[in-house]
Write a structure and sequence with these properties.
two-stranded antiparallel ribbon, 4 strands, 361 residues, mainly alpha
Length: 361
């Protein structure tokens, strides 16, 4: 087996293991985080601070009886959860989680697939997940499930336009759609203030684009305050109302993995991706001196740590917003998408073009 194939398998294993680990971790964070925000205890019986509660929930889903209602279309009912979770895994393939490394004549790229159309691939694959939701709602043969799936499709169409517009400005500035190139370009210095170098992160050169992307991502991942497809107050549970045991767990897994992909995209596009956090460059040098390990290896390690910290922050941000803001009405959701965010995205794109033409960006 060649070194390239071996390294590719290692990268795939790292990504799959990390995404699978996200689910029990976020189950714990979601429940303890909501308890913290609501001034209550949350899970605190299984293990220290209730840390084993998520593992118990996973075991419950695995061993729970997987019954199929008699009134559903069994074929589409069965494959719908897989059509939600598989695209979620596939999307992470183009996200770089560390910089490149050259050693002994070999070039190592810490990205499963360095595609020329990285950003477009993310949006194309992520949009496939809505087919699973629509299929689940239709195949369940339940009016509440169908309404939830119809809401999801309308929501995705409405906010995917703004989502795309929000990053066109970045692609114009960095002149690339490769996520690796965009992350590497953000390592440049934008300007210096009082001796401090401000990096060329996307949030500094496209603040409006970041705001549009952040809001649209909440709508695309069906998270509060935009979780209308599964609004409990009017749809009971929405598109997954008729699902239980592992089929329901797959929907939950898909939601958490979509959250992790969205957080990774936010970090990559607007917060430097794998670029070292402030102060870590000094730590890298000290660790390299103490351990006598090649500074390039230590740098790649801390780049991965920086990326994970950024992603973890935005994963917590998803939880924070969910338990802080109330749910929108569906007409408010549509009005916000079409009458506010979409026009604002067009204006931001126009202003960005003018600034590029004038040489400001």
């Amino acid at each position: 087996m060649t070194p390239e194939i071996s390294f590719m398998l290692i990268k795939v294993a790292i990504v799959l293991t990390g995404l699978l680990a996200v689910v029990p971790i976020m189950l714990f964070v979601e429940r303890r985080g909501s308890a913290l925000i609501q001034n209550r205890l949350g899970p605190n019986r299984m293990g220290p601070f209730g840390m084993f509660q998520a593992a118990c929930d996973v075991l419950k889903f695995i061993f729970k009886e997987d019954s199929t209602p008699t009134h559903v279309n069994k074929f589409y009912y069965t494959i719908a959860p897989w059509l939600v979770v598989i695209p979620a895994f596939m999307t992470f393939a183009v996200i770089p989680f560390a910089g490149s490394l050259s050693m002994d004549g070999n070039h190592f790229n810490f990205q499963v697939a360095n595609l020329d159309v990285g950003v477009l691939y993310c949006f194309a694959i992520a949009s496939l997940g809505v087919y699973g939701i629509i299929m689940a709602g239709w195949a369940s043969n339940n009016k509440y499930s169908l309404l939830g799936s119809l809401r999801s499709s309308a929501q995705m169409i409405s906010y995917e336009l703004t989502l795309g517009l929000s990053i066109v400005g970045l692609m114009m500035i960095f002149q690339s759609v490769r996520l690796g190139d965009i992350a590497a370009a953000q390592g440049e210095t934008l300007f210096t203030v009082a001796g401090l170098n401000v990096p060329k992160w996307g949030i500094f050169i496209q603040p409006v684009g970041f705001l549009l992307f952040l809001i649209s991502v909440f709508a695309e991942t069906n998270r509060l305050p935009f979780d209308l497809p599964e609004g409990e107050s009017e749809l009971i549970a929405g598109y997954h109302l008729e699902y239980g045991s592992m089929k329901f767990a797959l929907f939950m897994m898909g939601e958490f993995i979509n959250m992790s992909v969205a957080s990774a995209l936010i970090a990559t596009l607007f917060f430097g991706g794998w670029q070292l956090l402030p102060g870590l460059a000094w730590v890298v040098q000290q660790v390299a001196n103490i351990t006598q390990v090649d500074v390039l290896l230590v740098t790649v390690l801390f780049q991965g740590v920086s990326f994970v910290i950024k992603v973890a922050f935005f994963m917590w941000f998803f939880v924070w917003v969910r338990w802080t803001l109330p749910r929108f009405r569906f007409d408010q959701l549509m009005n916000l998408g079409w009458k506010v965010l979409f026009p604002l995205g067009l204006v931001n794109l126009f202003v960005t073009g003018i600034l590029i033409y004038k040489g400001v960006l």
